[in-house]
């Protein structure tokens, strides 16, 4: 075999284990789900196979699903904005730190060593009725009896921000770290104050990282069901909770399949819009 | 346009002293080069003049005004960075116009000023391109245009040519000097390249290990180095130990073990007194000849050629003359001497300089 032919074949050899896994664990199950979504559930006995649009009709027309979808998008958007506002300054600090950036980045990764579920549940110990904050406020006399601070939309957003902030910081950091510091110096020398040169030079050049971080936060937030389950109240269900409910609780696989494909489609459109304007390359940079 | 003064400038980074008590007067309109190897403090000095670093001690004056506490964006300086530092998300015209936004330039005036700057750097037609689409040399010209369009009081150039390849570097050198002559702006140029410094400067400031070794015109620093460091940094020099026997009004006699007495002109032997002295002889002033050649009026000694470094137009010899290993750079007449040849190494006393000390 010629050298060129070997080199042309090599990427495929290296990719094949990953491609096999994606095919068997992602593509094939996704096809099952697509097929399921057209089946019919009966109250008793086995689901009826075939091509029925009933589940899709219910998922697309029922106001309940639409409201929860909109609420999910709203919570994800708020989470993303909070992550951006909190994450950008942190990323800027790390990128411009004179000391050891590696240690700061390691600290950022540290929470990933603890399970996301445990991290989410830890808020119960902080904000719960007998949690740290209530105990402290009772002790100082600010409140007379414990206040229920958990199980509302704010705590859901709090939990999501806690979970997603490192993704935002990492993406923005990668973007900022690639910007030549001479550019800000050059802008300053030409008469721009530090704030003006940030707005004119650094911020526009870091937008791709901010957008990549935003997309990741939004998609991960919109797909979560653990945070609303642990930290949300009865009315704070997000869309993935509906899928969970349909499949696990009601054993209604056909409806659950249709709902999960609906969420996938909505998020897919977002990713396509992002890709259209910014390209996937930036996202890859942030993840790497 | 303004003068620049450094008064007793000290810059410390932690315990490391990057600049020791620097004093420097740069007259209005001059082209002054800070020359030295990396880590000598030349860029630190430039960054302090720019306001990108604060001096630990001392005063910086621009146009007679103390600027220590004036932030960089109010100093009205044009800076050209080694890597150009053009804004990649702005077009060439937007890059050049950037500094005008922060000055009282009427909106209608801006395109004219930008075009004039682009004309000056001989790139009149690239305004709507992005920096990425330009070559390194073109980007450098745009960086220069961006720095001069604001009519800065002082132009600061931080190794602006070092990222260019050799041919382009020489073209840009001529170009840069032409533009500086044309607009007459006070210019501080930082480089480690002695030929750039010699070719472009009105004054050269040679720096080493945070200290200013010598300030002078290119001819002065080249012909009359103030220290062994300067003699070696600007081209190749031979330094031979000797004794100063008699200091006369016109010449100073340095006794050398190999070449005997050498009468160095007093003007080139500042500070040399009776006692130990060093004779400085530039490699291109040491001429190799056939042993039979006439050396009258010259000081000579027999030498053996150890290495021949052929460079086309010139040749560099490493030779042994008694206890010394010397260098000679000669124009090639017909063919160079071969390795191992025995020749006569000769020079004229008036081409030598002398330094005090052992």
UniProtKB/TrEMBL annotation, chain A:
It is a multi-pass membrane protein. Keywords: Cell membrane, Membrane, Transmembrane, Transmembrane helix, Transport. GO terms for cellular component: plasma membrane. InterPro entries: MetI-like (IPR000515), MetI-like_sf (IPR035906). The keyword Transmembrane helix applies. Residues 69-274 form the ABC transmembrane type-1 domain. The chain crosses the membrane at residues 12-39, 75-95, 102-118, 124-144, 156-176, 210-231, 251-274. PANTHER family: ABC TRANSPORTER PERMEASE PROTEIN (PTHR42929:SF5), INNER MEMBRANE ABC TRANSPORTER PERMEASE PROTEIN YDCU-RELATED-RELATED (PTHR42929). Belongs to the binding-protein-dependent transport system permease family. CysTW subfamily. This is ABC transporter permease.
From TrEMBL, chain B:
It holds the Pfam family TOBE_2. It comes from Marinibacterium profundimaris. It is an enzyme of class 7 (translocase). Residues 4-234 form the ABC transporter domain. One of its GO terms (molecular function) is ATP binding. Part of the ABC transporter complex PotABCD involved in spermidine/putrescine import. Responsible for energy coupling to the transport system. It catalyses: ATP + H2O + polyamine-[polyamine-binding protein]Side 1 = ADP + phosphate + polyamineSide 2 + [polyamine-binding protein]Side 1. This is Spermidine/putrescine import ATP-binding protein PotA. The gene is potA. GO terms for cellular component: ATP-binding cassette (ABC) transporter complex. SUPFAM superfamilies: MOP-like (SSF50331), P-loop containing nucleoside triphosphate hydrolases (SSF52540). It comes from the Bacteria. The keyword Iron does not apply. Its EC number is 7.6.2.11. Signal peptide: none annotated. The complex is composed of two ATP-binding proteins (PotA), two transmembrane proteins (PotB and PotC) and a solute-binding protein (PotD). Keywords: ATP-binding, Cell membrane, Membrane, Nucleotide-binding, Translocase, Transport. Belongs to the ABC transporter superfamily. Spermidine/putrescine importer (TC 3.A.1.11.1) family. PROSITE patterns: ABC_TRANSPORTER_1, ABC_TRANSPORTER_2.
């Amino acid at each position: 075999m010629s050298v060129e032919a070997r080199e042309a074949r090599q990427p495929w050899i290296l990719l094949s284990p990953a491609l096999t896994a994606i095919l068997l664990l992602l593509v094939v199950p996704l096809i099952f789900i697509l097929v399921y979504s057209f089946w019919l559930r009966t109250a008793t006995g086995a689901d009826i196979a075939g091509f029925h649009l009933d589940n899709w009709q219910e998922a697309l027309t029922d106001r309940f699903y639409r409201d929860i979808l909109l609420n999910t998008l709203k919570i994800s958007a708020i989470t993303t904005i909070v992550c951006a506002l909190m994450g950008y300054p942190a990323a800027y600090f790390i990128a411009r730190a004179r000391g050891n950036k590696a240690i700061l980045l390691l600290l950022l990764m540290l929470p990933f060593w603890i399970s996301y579920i445990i991290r989410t549940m830890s808020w119960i110990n902080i904000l719960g009725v007998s949690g740290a904050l209530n105990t402290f406020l009772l002790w100082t006399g600010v409140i007379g009896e414990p206040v229920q601070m958990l199980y509302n939309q704010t705590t859901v957003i709090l939990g999501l921000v806690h979970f997603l902030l490192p993704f935002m910081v990492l993406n923005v950091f990668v973007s900022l770290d690639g910007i030549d510091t001479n550019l800000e110096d050059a802008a300053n020398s030409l008469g721009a104050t530090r704030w003006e040169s940030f707005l004119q030079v650094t911020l526009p050049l870091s937008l791709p990282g901010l957008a990549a971080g935003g997309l990741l936060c939004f998609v991960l937030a919109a797909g979560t069901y653990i945070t609303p389950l642990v930290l949300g109240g009865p009315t704070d269900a997000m869309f993935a909770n509906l899928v969970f409910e349909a499949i696990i609780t009601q054993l209604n696989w056909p409806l659950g399949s249709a709902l999960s494909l609906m969420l996938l489609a909505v998020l897919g459109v977002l990713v396509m819009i992002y890709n259209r304007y910014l390209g996937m390359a930036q996202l890859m940079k942030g993840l790497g | 346009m303004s003068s620049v003064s450094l008064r007793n400038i000290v810059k410390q980074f932690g315990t490391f002293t990057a600049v020791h008590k620097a004093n420097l007067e740069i007259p209005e309109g001059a082209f002054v080069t800070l020359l030295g190897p990396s880590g000598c403090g030349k860029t630190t000095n430039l960054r302090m003049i720019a306001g990108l670093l604060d001096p630990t001690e001392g005063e910086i004056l621009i146009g007679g005004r103390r600027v220590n506490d004036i932030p960089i964006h109010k100093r009205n300086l044009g800076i050209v960075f080694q890597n150009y530092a053009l804004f990649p998300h702005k077009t060439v015209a937007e890059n050049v116009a950037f500094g005008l936004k922060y000055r009282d330039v009427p909106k209608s005036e801006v395109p004219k000023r930008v075009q004039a700057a682009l004309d000056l750097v001989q790139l009149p037609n690239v305004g709507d391109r992005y920096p990425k689409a330009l070559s390194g040399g073109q980007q450098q010209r745009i960086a220069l245009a961006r720095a001069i369009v604001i009519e800065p009081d002082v132009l600061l150039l931080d190794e602006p040519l070092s990222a260019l390849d050799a041919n382009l570097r020489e073209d840009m050198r001529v170009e840069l000097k032409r533009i500086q002559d044309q607009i007459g702006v006070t210019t501080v140029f930082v480089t480690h390249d002695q030929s750039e410094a010699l070719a472009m400067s009105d004054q050269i400031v040679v720096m080493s290990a945070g200290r200013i070794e010598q300030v002078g015109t290119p001819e002065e620093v080249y012909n009359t180095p103030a220290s062994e460091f300067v003699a070696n940094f600007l081209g190749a020099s031979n330094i031979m130990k000797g004794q100063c026997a008699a200091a006369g009004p016109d010449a100073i006699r340095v006794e050398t073990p190999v070449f005997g007495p050498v009468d160095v002109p007093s003007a080139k032997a500042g500070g040399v007194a009776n006692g130990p002295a060093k004779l400085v002889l530039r490699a291109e002033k040491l001429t190799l000849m056939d042993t039979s050649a006439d050396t009258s009026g010259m000081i000579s000694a027999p030498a053996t050629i150890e290495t021949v470094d052929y460079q086309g137009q010139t040749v560099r010899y490493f030779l042994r003359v008694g206890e010394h290993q010397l260098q000679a750079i000669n124009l090639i007449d017909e063919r160079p001497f071969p390795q191992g040849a025995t020749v006569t190494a000769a020079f004229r006393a008036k081409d030598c300089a002398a330094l005090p000390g052992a």
